[in-house]
Amino acid sequence: MAFFDPPHDPLPPGFPLAAVDASGRPIVEGSRVRIPVMPHWLIHDLPAEDVAHLRSVEGQVLPVLEIDGYGYLWFGEHGPWFSLMPTEVVLESESV
């Protein structure tokens, strides 16, 4: 299920991000990936409650809900909750 429309304007240099994990293995929607740590860029200016909620998934294996037009991986149980760059995760299995 696509939650995000493709970008309408040309993408900035370096985008879309390559859909490969921290070890260079390919990731597709539905892949199960481990999130070793929440990156600073995501949590640095969030309220403490939101940071704690995001940190609660560190070390867990989650399915990739969607890969958006920029190449970011989206996660969430019932819809998009947060995104990470593909190189910030580790592939555990290709799909559910």
TrEMBL record:
It comes from the Bacteria. This is Uncharacterized protein.
